[in-house]
Amino acid sequence: MLEVNNLSIGFASGECLVEGLSFQVEAGGVLALLGPSGSGKSTVLDWITGTLAPGIQSSGSLHLYGRDLTDVPTERRGLGLVLQDGSLFPHMSIAENLAFGARQRLSAAAVDELLERADLGGMADRDPATISGGQRARVSLLRTLVSEPAAVLLDEPFSKLDAELRDQIRAFTWTETEAVPRVLVTHDAQDIPAHAQRIQLGDSAC
Amino acid sequence: MGRALRALVWSVLALAFGLPLALGLVGTGIAAAGAFPGSPMPGWSQALSDPRLLAAVVATLWTGLGATALALALALAALVLGWGRGWFRAVAGWLPPMLAVPHAALAVGLVFVLAPSGWLMRMVLEGPRPPSGWTVPDAYGLSLLVGLALKEFPFLLFTAMALCPRLNPDHWIKQGRVLGYSASRCWTRLVLPRLLSQLRLPIAVVLAYNLSVVDMALLLGPGQPPTLAALVLEWFNQAGGRAKAGAGAWLLLVVMALGFAAFAIAGLGLGALARGRRVSGIRRGWHLWHWPARVALAGALGLTALALISLPIWSLAQRWRFPDAWPSAWTLRFWVNRWDQLGELLSHTLILGVASTALAVLAAVVWLELERLRRVPRIDGLWYVPLLLPQVCVLLGWQSASLWVGWDGRAATVIWGHWVYSLPYVILMLAGAWRALDPSYDQQARVLGHGYAARLLRVRVPLMARPLLSAAAVAMAVSVAQYLPTLLLSGGRIPTLTTELVTSFGGVDRRMIGALASLQLMLPLVCFAAALVLPRIWFRNRQHA
Q1: Which of A35, A196, B51, B108 could form a disulfide with A39 if both were Cys (CB 3.0 to 4.6 A apart)?
Q2: A120 phi and psi, to 5 degrees?
Q3: A41-49 and B169-178 helices cross at what angle (nearest 10)?
Q4: Which residue is closest to A108 within chain B, CA to CA?
């Protein structure tokens, strides 16, 4: 279970972004953070990953399956993060992107198997710049999954996809990540699975 | 108007910029073949049979490749260890003035600090005599290697930092860290491979310079034999040595090609090794290089600072006996007594610098404007040509050609030489800002009824005041530092602070050398300070510029 308690985020100038935010997400559950641009949705994900920009102050606690992660360095939190552009490393092939995410060396067969699973067979040696947005989104998710994350954070992962592709990628995403807690940032209500919890940011007393 | 203007611009560019480079290379080749009077036999056999040649080639490759590798390692270490930290921002703020430091001044300062009787030993030793066991310069080229690395690492760091906003390291580091890699590993596996591929040209410029440098090699390099570039100059100065020097200069081109090949092969090997590691899945491990790199960086910055501070101190020292850490008596005597000579050198340096800078800035503005108006194409790679060709290779032929047409020894010829070497820096520095200027300002001025000249002079140039002044400061620094173009194109008839410093080093009192080097250092620093302060004064109530 991913647990955030009493999270407050603000700028050094005193301006407040998020105040007193608490939530719990069980394994297999989805929490959707909704809100207009600038309401702090992505900043909450940055806080969970431990990558808040310098000059932003925060308080609160973060637990993952009972382990306190609040002051744990980003690289030891064991989380997965999927961004809207996929953020595939441009100097690596698709296979190298996957291998970079893996916890141990991936054999060529393992890479092929992973790619087949995502309908991306034969693309191992492709340059990320030459594949479509939907394919990029799937590779990005696969790269996150091979890192064996204990929770997955999704920052508007479907927003750059066209309508038809969105449904496919949504289904792929929710199926592939169903074993772990998931936090989704979106401004599109259609991205949110029916069973998800919802938190609206930007209209708090902050 | 378009076609005629384009033809005119290309003709001027070819004649003023391309011709001396081409003519220089060809002239040096002709000299090597022994076609000039006073050459008893073709220069090639003379040069190849010189017993010092092989050792000079080895010294050239060792110092050039070693200094480039060390400078690159220091720059990348600074970036990886310092990115986002307070100390790094402070160092980054000092980079532009560090770029302006003339090579010769730094070399002299390093001798003042690192020699057995230098400042460093005076600070740590208490014995009556300087220690023995080493000299600066040394026979192995270590002093030259360190000096070149210290001079070039700020340039590589500055260039790398200029590329960083486009590469967005923070974004990729965040991605890598979430996947379980440390920030340092994210740098080495995610950011540096892309950064290095974009740094290839600046690294090539540094490598070319390090393999062909003359002034620093004369001040810090091994003496018997010197590096190949310095040996070529020595041959050139011998009676009837022009053909041998010409052949030596072309040999230097071959040695440079070898150096580039060696550096490229090493780079490819390291790249393959890094590719294997980045798909290994291994996250944990020791960062064994962090502490040595921190010590090396602190040492490099400290040594540079000490070297530069030592120059004015020596120029003002009346009595400074070993092992005193500071002079026991101070005096302005050397400045006052030698002011006639210093003033003349200063005025020559200023005249050459101001003229070549003004012409370089003017030419750069014309070129970038024509580029903006789509009258000429973008040819950024071309501007690197003079920076990649060894000066000695170009200038021996250029000097011969000047002699032949009777232009040698004239101030205009020397200004032309300085212009050819400062123009690339001005264009490369200015291009980014000029191309990024919002076209809507020009559009607004046009709609308001202003003609081309008014829009250029009242809108674009004032908006570009800061980058223009920075580029001018760089051009001035480049001009002040020119040794070989000044020496060869003036035929020794227009001495400047740099030529005098290199020529008289070792044979003149340290106080005089300190004064010369201090002046040489001060000129570009004053220009950089002016480039920083003037726009603030001119535009104190405005947001832009």
Answers
A1: A35
A2: -120, 25
A3: 60
A4: B279
What are the structural domains, with CATH classification, of chain B?
1-32+338-545 (1.10.3720.10), 40-331 (1.10.3720.10)
Q: What stretch(es) of chain A map to CATH 3.40.50.300?
A: 1-78+179-206
Kindly state which CATH superfamily the domain A1-78+179-206 is placed in.
P-loop containing nucleotide triphosphate hydrolases (3.40.50.300)
Query: Which of A81, A91, A143 lies nearest to residue B193, judging by beta carbons?
Result: A91
The helix or strand, by DSSP H or E, that contains position A68, with its residue range, turns out to be strand A67-68
Tens place of pLDDT per residue across chain B (545 aa): 467 877 888 888 899 899 999 988 998 888 887 766 555 567 888 999 999 999 999 999 999 999 999 999 999 999 999 998 889 998 888 888 898 899 999 999 999 999 999 999 999 888 788 888 888 999 999 999 999 999 999 999 999 999 999 999 999 999 999 999 999 999 999 999 999 999 999 999 999 999 999 999 999 999 888 999 999 999 999 988 889 999 999 999 999 999 999 999 999 999 999 888 888 888 877 788 999 999 999 999 999 999 999 999 999 999 999 889 999 999 999 899 989 999 999 999 999 999 999 999 999 999 999 999 888 888 888 999 999 999 999 999 999 899 889 998 999 999 999 999 999 999 999 998 999 999 888 888 888 888 899 999 999 998 999 999 999 999 999 999 999 999 999 999 999 999 999 999 988 889 999 999 999 999 999 999 999 899 888 877 665 54
CB contact under 8 A, B278 and A87: no
Collapsed DSSP state (helix, strand, coil) of residue A20: strand
Indicate the residue type of B515: A
Side chain identity at residue A68, one-letter code: D
Residue of B nearest to A144 (CA): B179
Nearest to B279 among A50, A90, A99 (CB): A99
Cα gap B156→B198, rounded to integer Å: 12
* Beta-carbon separation of B279 and A90 below 8 A: no
CA dist B199 and A107 (Å) reads 33
Nearest residue to A155 (alpha-carbon basis) of A63, A49, A4: A49
ipTM over 0.95: no
Residues with Cβ within 8 Å of residue B214, at least 6 apart in sequence: B229, B230, B233, B391, B392, B483, B484
